[in-house]
Amino acid sequence: MTEKEKMLAGLLYNPSDSELSSIRIRAHNLCRKYNSLPETSEKRKKILKEALPNAHNDIYLQGPVQFDYGVFTTIGKGTYVNFNFTCLDCAPVEIGENVFFGPNVNILTPIHPMVAEERIGFSDKNGNVSILEYAKPVKIEDNCWIAGNVTICGGLTIGKGSVIGAGSVVTKDIPEGSFAAGVPCRVIRKISEKDSLEEESEKYFEGK
Fold first, then answer.
1. Out of 28, 101, 153, 154, which could bridge 136 as a Cys pair, Cβ 3.0 to 4.6 Å?
2. Cα–Cα separations (whole angstroms), residue 140 to 162, 164, 173
């Protein structure tokens, strides 16, 4: 297996591998170009398509954004991403349709060794040292709202239609249709008809 195949399979891999380094550098350069352009620039669409080939054309990323690889992230139609979005997609990241992200959201799939000495590196039988890590995928299903300053760790799914409160650190699966918040993030309650703004919206349109 190549190091890329190991990485995507959730196995230990060496991030300094030349193939992975090349993909990362390309993604970082594309993000830098995207972030340097005015939000009204038509050039941003072309750059975004290069950086995120598995994203729908109908998405909006405010910027600045930072993807580690880009090619391992899928984004569905109608998704909106606010300022300062970081996605370390060492494992596949799947973002559904009509997902809304507040500012300063982080999706972090890499998992580093807990033992301090192992973070410095592992030695093979010839004494060569390699820094090894692994990564776990993230899936955010359709129609979710991820509020500002949320961190989403690897190895979990956020269910369809859920809302993640501001400042949360998501470390476990969140069931469909839940309001969840906290550090670590936990389900507060199910989202229900009581949360609807339909009545207020009718008043709004009546007043126009």
1. 154
2. 9, 11, 10
